[in-house]
Amino acid sequence: AQPEDVEPESQTLGDPNREVVVTHVEDVELLSKLGRTSEAIAGIKKLQLKSKHSPTLHFMLGGLYFDKEQYGPGLTAYQAALEGDGAYKSQAKLNADVVLALRAGKKRVRKQAERIIIRLLKKNVLDELNSAAEGAARKAVRRRLGKLARRVSRMP
Fold it and tell me: pTM for this one?
């Protein structure tokens, strides 16, 4: 139960259909919370016109694409975030999304996710990778993820 003086977030966000003009990252976050993912993606692209190489914008864009199950563009955005700021290696959502692409994506997307793991994430994603390998329903997926996890575990 919530305290009486605290409104649920859905009520504090106001009208979900109201116009939101994107001028700052907070506007994109609001659109995302309102469930307006396509508009949030368009908002990030608008903000990127001013700050094209912002790792934060790339990270946010990657997450939004994954929310829409568009793994290829999501991985491309995450890769740009990682290349711009290596600190994103420790972001749990990014790591989980990259591993999700290994399990759910098409072959091209899986290869892209593998390259990101090998080049950029390395051992930061090892626990997530091992869990995915153990929990995979199909034997071929378990084997593929397990092989990648062993390769990553031997990395410096």
Answer: 0.86
Are 82 and 88 in contact by the 8 Å Cβ rule? The answer is yes
The two structure tokens encoding residue 64: 């939004």
- Spatial distance between the Cα atoms of 72 and 82, rounded to a whole number of angstroms: 15
CB 63 within 8 A of CB 80: no
CB count in 10 Å sphere of residue 96: 15
Q: For 61-106, write each residue's pLDDT tens digit.
A: 999 999 999 999 999 999 999 999 999 999 999 999 999 999 887 9
Pair 109, 72: CB distance under 8 Å: yes
Element (H, E) at 123: none
Measured between alpha carbons, how far is 139 from 41 in angstroms, rounded to an integer? 36
Q: What share of the chain is helix, strand, coil (3-state, %, to 5)?
A: 75, 0, 25
Question: Is the Cβ–Cβ distance between 74 and 97 less than 8 Å?
Answer: yes
69 token code pair: 């199950």
Structure tokens at 19: 């116009």
